[in-house]
Description:
The complex is a heterodimer of chains A (about 290) and B (about 425). By secondary structure, chain A is an all-alpha fold. Chain A has helices spanning about 5-35, 55-60, 65-95, 100-115, 115-125, 135-140, 155-165, 170-180, 185-190, 195-225, 230-235, 245-255, 260-285; strands spanning about 40, 50. Chain A has a single domain (about 60-285), classed as MetI-like (MetI-like fold). Chain A has 13 helices and 2 strands, in the order H-E-E-H-H-H-H-H-H-H-H-H-H-H-H. In chain A, strand 1 and strand 2 form a beta hairpin.
Amino acid sequence: MTRNDRRELRWGLIFISPWIVGFLAFVVYPMANAGYLSFTRFSGFGEARWIGWANYRRLFQDDLFWTSLWNTVVYVGMAVPLGLVVALALALAMNQRLREVAWYRTAFYLPSILPLFALSLIFVWLLNPRFGLFNYLLSLIGVSPVNWLGDPRIAKISLVLVAQLGAGHAAVIFLAGLRAIPQTLYDAAIIDGANDLQKLFHVTIPLLTPSILYNLISAIGVNLQIFTQAYIMTDGGPVDSTLFYALYLYRNAFNYSDLGYASAMSWILFVLNLALALFVFARARRWVRYEVVG
Amino acid sequence: MFKLRTALALAFALIVGVAAAQQSLTFWTSLTYPIDVEALQTIVDEFNAANPDLEVELVQVPGSDVNDVSKLMTAVAGGTGPDIYMLDRFTVAQRAAAGLLTDLGDRIDSGAADAFLEFAWNEVLFQGDAYGVPFDTDVRALYYNRDMIDAAGVDASALDPANGVPSLEDVERIAQALNETDDQGNYTQVGFIPWVGQGQPYTWGFAFGGDFYDEAACRLTPDSEEIVASMAWVDDWAGMLGRDEIVNYISTFSSGAGPIAWSGQIPPAQNPFITGRLGMVAEGDWFVANLERYAPDMEFGVTYLPSPTGEVASWSGGWAMVMPTGTEDEDAAYRFIEHITGTQGQRTYAEMTSHFPTRAELLEDDAIYEGRRAFLRTILDGSHARPALPVGGQYWGELRGAQEETVLDRMAPEEALERVVSRVQPRLDEYCD
């Protein structure tokens, strides 16, 4: 390392130091502390009492732990692929060469920055089986009323559909990726006689794979932690069908004053999330194209 | 120049003096019914007027329920908790066990216990020490819409309290006559839904003569014969109405709450009894005041909860005033607790809300109770209380879950109630000797 390198490193560290401090104080420290608490009996007040692996052992015998984990896995399995498709569709729409495209972009992105709890409260009404807009629209094409949130077989699917309103974040990432694809490739494809669908599958999507990978890994992390919609719209019901992992964790911490148990749950979720992300990342070499095209 | 300085100094001294003389206290409630909140505000105003050195501020913190006190927990842990909190009384032991509450034992006179109803006093105790002071109490009863019954032309003499406790068969016969559907088969009006309003598992378990806790054995007993029978009755009723149909009907007024819709989850404007879409409902005493305000033209009646035993049975809950851990000036906070749980505070609350006081002397004051409330007071005598356990909130939540499983026909009543034991008993075992 030359003197110049060292100086650059020093200034670099100084410039990102606010982030480093924040990361240590608000991510690393809480995680380490939760790791310690997961081996204790702790109500949130008074002393934490060391109980070794007892919380983890209890978790594996807790049927609600397994229920919440299963619900979450099913939710992730539906929400992640659907979310990517919806976000890609939005990005393609936002990328059209239209005079008023700025309006569309704003309209598509707006739901993603609205507070999730406000959206959830509104959707409780839109999904009302008797008076809701959705069932009214369905009734126009002769579909009988659906009990979106009250039927344990449907509630999870309803939450997956509502979550698509948040697709704007991923769509913006896709949009940036779309912008980076050189026009020359499309021109070449047109000369080769490709139609729109062929351009999408042979030019656009292969070159978007780095964005897809990023959005996929983020989506897994975000969806594993689904909480707000279930907390506000269904409170985990009916019959625990939307009792997601984060909601059960919250109940243990704040309803049952069992922060040690909740901390153990949070570490299991972290390890699970990390394992999934690493798995996706390891497989990515086979389908992600990083080569620079020009 | 001199004058200006003097004036400034005087003004400064005045501001500091007033600020020092008046200490502010924060009082949190999770209640949201306007009638209840207005009554609390009245009591706070009375206290502030009589105590110029203190200024109590009433703050509503909605979104908390029997189980969820996360706002209180996080605020107390962060050192910004309220000085006084209004807590669902049967969970005092649970929150005291978690270290969230201040032990008030030293402050309360040794004779204070005798001034309160016995069950209410027992609910504020954890390991023999008082962690709160009882405030109000309540009872559950059966409300019926007289207009609806007259329109259907059904004989409802069984619902006259003078004829004693209505039988299950009477209620079923009347309810069936009130059901109405539209041409697509959707319910537009229903006679009775046992699990709506205050029809919790505790309500029907007690009505069937059940016992939820064996104190000697330190064992939860929701799987006892009477409680299983009460749940089976609810199950049969759901089957009789048609599960999908009735769940759809309930979802129209309690979006998101699922098939179980309790009064705390339904705002008055959507309450199916208040809006005339439900003929009978199990509700609490406070419902009298709600009906008088939100349905002033409705002709309604109140009678005992139906029961197979023929005996009067109900259960009573209510609230307690507690001091969260870390309250800065405990003496000042306790002065307010003494006021609001005292004779004057409880009288104001009872008169304005149609709840009952927990001070025995006030219960004997006939001037407070007239008409239906005098009748409701007679139910209070034989009323039960939920077991006040360190796992009380979770027990409540799991009983609710069992009722939901039963109503949706996903579990047999007995199986669902056994699951309650398997989930909650291990947590209780930590406190058993």
